[in-house]
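Re: the request from the purification team.
They wanted to know what the chain is likely to look like in 3D before they choose a buffer screen. I agreed to run a prediction and write the result into the notebook, where they can find it.
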Amino acid sequence: MDVYNAFLQGDLFEEVYIEIPVGFRSQGESHVCRLRKSLYGLKQASRQWNSKLIEALIRGGYVQSKYDYSLFTKRDGGNMVVLLIYVDDLLITGSSASMIDELKQFLHLNFKMKDLGVLKFFLGIEIMRSNKGIILNQRKYALELIADLGLGEAKSVCTPLEHNLKLTSIEYDESVQTKVDGDDLVTDVKMYQRLLGRLIYLTNTRPDITFAVQHLSQFMHRPKKSHLEAAFRVVRYIRKNPGQGILLSVASKTQLIAFCDSDWASCPMSRRSVTGFCIKIRESLISWKSKKQTTVSRSSAEAEYRSMAVVVAEVVWLNGLLKEVSPNQFDKSLVLSDSKAALQIAANPVFHERTKHIEIDCHFVRDKIKDGTIQMQHIGTTEQLADLMTKALSIKQHEFLVSKLGVKDIYQPST
């Protein structure tokens, strides 16, 4: 559903003044108007609208999620309805058609609404349904990006980055007195920034480019030509399968399975490690991330343990969220790591002196193991899906891990 003209209904609880519009004031008049209602475009408008909508929903018996404040639920016996808010766009779903109709009528009574029908597109994401589940993709968005860059006829590539590629900043090159001929600064910095911004948005349904985009985003302020060429390579990789997206399978069981990994001291400029994780509800990928760690790890075990702490925090949050929106009882979450040392640190509170310098906040992993929230398990490096989020891989390994993620391209003929 779409809400429009709703900003005009938000009462202001602070003093805001505007000049009297030209044509409505007398010559020489210097008075101003005090607003009683928020106008569209006013800085306070979105906040006032959100406040008014939340107030109405709570008054109607809908419960605001403690894990995502834009999510509201209402239960009636074994049925429930779920409402998700994004500014003035609302997504409604549930297990009861009558409860969904009741929510729509409630919203129509309180606000001026427009029902857009069954969900097909949302914020540039295409939602497609089949007997196997729901597929989310950004094919239209990807094709527009390829066309805007003039790469429609360019040769596609099999990986988003060259194997083991390590890019550096111009400041680092100057500090170590190294320079590659022709690798000067990009003259149009805003073009590079716009391109990376569009690629960042594509990671909503393309986990396979997450590491590449994270790596290239470090050079937003002063990109070099090598960075721009690498960004174009990502687009040429997208061109290979522009309709690739995430399959949310109907066959998924009620258990969270998390893969976590790190690439120790992989950044040549700061020697910080990269954390990567992906989380699935059995076969359906629901969360993933690639991010450089905030501190320098003294060992690979420490880097892996920090990565483990990040994914456990995400699992705890997802467990809470799923309990609010799902009637099913979820099994104990499973966290898979290819680091035996990190698994030993998590299991043994007095492992050895190598762990004494690790911050206390990382050790909450042990608490979650003790209270039964998660279960740790070792996995082989070649089977570690999170490896895709930490480094540029070879073509064979990249394609193997992507196939295991549960991403599909229904526009490509099956082989």
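For the purification team: The first helix runs from residue 45 to 59.
Please add any questions underneath this entry.
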